[in-house]
Amino acid sequence: MVREGFIFLCAMLEIGKTIVSFDVIEEHFLCDLFKCKGACCVEGDSGAPLTAEEALKLEEIYPIVEPYMTQEGKAVIAHQGTSMVDEDGDTVTPLVNNRECAYTFTDDKGIVKCGIEKAFLEGKIDFRKPVSCHLFPVRITEYKRFDAVNYQELKICKPGRECGRGQKLPLYQFLKEPLIRKYGKDWYEQLAFAAKERPWEKSAE
User: What family is reported (predicted)?
Assistant: First the structure.
C-alpha cells in the first residue's frame, strides 16, 4: 500500500530508504530519570555507536567536554582515545570498567548523565551527543540499501514505558527531535502521518 510517500509492508513501514518497525509508532515512552537513574549510559556490552563524523567531532570537542567528566572517564580516554573500535569492528565511545560510558558523570541526585550533553546545554559546544544516544531506545541498523529503524525494549527502560503509557506519549513523538536530526523534517512528517492515519488497520478492514 502506497500513501503520502510511504509504503506499508506487513509489520513495518517503508519511508524513503528506511524500514520502520510498527513498534516505533505503537509503543509509548517517556524517560523517567528519577527511577532509571540514567541506566542506559551504564548498562551494555559496548559503548555508544558513533559515525565516522561523530568520532572526529568528539576528538575536536574533547578539551571542552573533559571538565564535565569523571577522573575515571578521563583516564580511560587518555589510554584509549576519544573513540575506539569494539570487538564487532564498530566505532564506539570508550567504557569505564567495560560498563559505563567514559563521557558520563553523576549529578547530586544520583542520576548518570552525559558530559557531552551538559557542555551542549551550557552553550559550550554545538554537538549535543551521538545520535545513537539521542535516539535511544530506538536503534538503527544501516544496511547497503536501507536503514532498519527498530525499538529496542530493555528491562532497564521499564520506568520509561510506564511513564510513557501514563502520559499517553507515543515513542515516535518522544523522539521527534532526534528522528528529525537523523532523517529530516519531511521524513518525520511522513512517519507522523502514518501514525495518525494507520493505513495498515484500514487495509485489514
Answer: Belongs to the Rv0495c family.
